[in-house]
Amino acid sequence: MAFRQMYDGMINFDYKAVVPSLNFQDVRYNPSTRIEDSVRQQNRDKVIWFLEDCVKEHLNLNTKNDMKYENEMLFKMYVEWCEVSKEKMDYKKISLGMHITVITKR
User: Fold this and answer.
1) Within 10 A of 36 (CB to CB), how many other CB atoms are there?
2) Cβ distance 78 to 72 under 8 Å?
3) Which residues, 6 or more positions from 8, have their beta carbon under 8 angstroms from its beta carbon?
4) Are 49 and 98 in contact (CB under 8 A)?
5) In which band, very low, low, confident or very high, does the pLDDT at 80 lie, cut at 50, 70 and 90?
6) What is the model's pTM?
């Protein structure tokens, strides 16, 4: 019964009223909402979240030093961040470094 109602709703939907040009790729007819922006923000790569948290922590310390870490230290920080954030740790030491390299090249 529910599928029948969805089917009838889609068949009777007046899509020409929503997108008069029938160009569904047109940016003008792709509204962006606060919820959509929030979902995009929350679905970012967790390594980006980790790096942002590292930078924020560094800025809160008010130091003028550059952020330079050996791979071993960066991986240790990532492991600790995953534990604190309750995130699943998806990377090993080498794969984390490779993933960060890919992210920074974007």
Assistant:
1) 11
2) no
3) none
4) no
5) very high
6) 0.57
Q: How far apart are the C-alpha atoms of 64 and 55, rounded to whole Å?
A: 12
Of all residues in the chain, what percent are helix, strand and coil, respectively (each to 5)? 65, 0, 35
CA distance 64 to 61: 9
Summarised one tens digit per residue, pLDDT across range 24-76 is: 777 776 767 788 888 888 788 888 888 888 888 877 777 777 777 888 888 99
Do residues 48 and 103 lie in contact, with contact meaning Cβ atoms separated by under 8 Å? yes
Report the pLDDT value the prediction gives residue 67, as an integer from 0 to 100: 74
8-11 long-range contacts (CB < 8 A, ≥24 apart) are none
**How far is Cα 48 from Cα 103, in angstroms, rounded to an integer?**
8
User: What is residue 65's DSSP assignment?
Assistant: S
Alpha-carbon dihedral sign for residues 64, 66, 72, 76: positive
- CA angle, 36 as apex, 8 and 45 as ends, to 5°? 125
